[in-house]
């Protein structure tokens, strides 16, 4: 039986994040409200896209990111009212950077042809490209982003579909304390012109931030309560005279400081991935169902407050949670396959205020076929 706190939280989210009266007059952009989710599909046991739509609508999660532009997903989202960010995979960047016609064709076939019924609100051009060590790919990112944007502009879609690209913590030279954060020297040559372009077109800085990973790599130096949004002394940043009671806020403000150092003080930071694994390898002891529940429940409460960070208190934090499902075909450590809020059958992985699919008919429809 769910606690009254979870019931109240679920009601609050239902009202704020999916109420058409509140969202109808929002400024155009790829994100409405404060809560979204990543719908990854590197798995052989997750449901087909039309059944995923049922789950998302019942959970009242409006903002959704995918990592490609799969047509079966785009078609399933048609007429649903869900806002979708599609992905241009890293493998396409060099081609899109060098060939404007290919960029135009990609946008036409994967974006324009599905609008307006499918509410594609953004294109994520690549994912975690900078800081990854591939100089050719890093060099192609800006050109690809520009060519995709120019294609949107030719179609008069540049004010409807936002261009972004997500970065990992690997772009930063130092992030503790937050005020010391700058971009790595080998990243700056690519990052600064990219930021200039994103600033010109009004796009935010997108960050994939994982307190789970930070704690996993430094368990003796980081208080797990600090990583999980639980009561703790936190940290104090003497340069800014700010105190942080959770790691995610500190990671975000570190990004703001790096942007400020690079000359982009007013650029907004949006979290495009964050989450906590519910299972991991022997060297990932913090990957437990209880810790995953605690992080995601407390993060949901944090986002529901619609507040900013200590450094940017008036800029409301927005975040996409990673991820909708466990993805059993992802390579790497066991934790990579255990970030899902939901199981493939539509049941919750753990209780953070969402429901499993309610009706027997819906459950039957949901589990009747798989991709």
Q: Would you mind describing this structure in some detail?
A:
This protein has 371 residues and is of the alpha/beta class. The protein has a single domain, classed as TIM Barrel. It has 13 helices and twelve strands. The protein has helices spanning 4-18, 20-23, 49-59, 71-76, 93-98, 100-110, 135-154, 185-200, 211-217, 224-227, 247-262, 289-304, 360-367, and strands at residues 35-38, 63-65, 83-88, 119-127, 162-167, 172-174, 182-183, 205-208, 235-237, 242-244, 269-274, 319-321. Strand 1 (35-38), helix 3 and strand 2 form a beta-alpha-beta unit. It starts with a helix and ends with a helix. Mean pLDDT is 90; it is low at 1-27.
Q: Short summary of the structure?
A:
The protein is built from 13 helices and 12 strands. By secondary structure, the protein is an alpha/beta fold. The chain has an 8-stranded parallel barrel.
Task: Name the features.
alpha/beta; TIM Barrel; eight-stranded parallel β-barrel; two-stranded antiparallel sheet; 12 strands; globular
SSE diagram, text form:
Blueprint: H1 4-18, H2 20-23, E1 35-38, H3 49-59, E2 63-65, H4 71-76, E3 83-88, H5 93-98, H6 100-110, E4 119-127, H7 135-154, E5 162-167, E6 172-174, E7 182-183, H8 185-200, E8 205-208, H9 211-217, H10 224-227, E9 235-237, E10 242-244, H11 247-262, E11 269-274, H12 289-304, E12 319-321, H13 360-367
Parallel strand pairs: 1-2, 1-12, 2-3, 3-4, 4-5, 5-8, 8-11, 11-12
Antiparallel strand pairs: 6-7, 9-10
Helix pairs in contact: 3-13, 6-7, 7-8
Family: Belongs to the glycosyl hydrolase 17 family.
Keywords: Glycosidase, Hydrolase, Signal
Pfam families: Glyco_hydro_17 (PF00332)
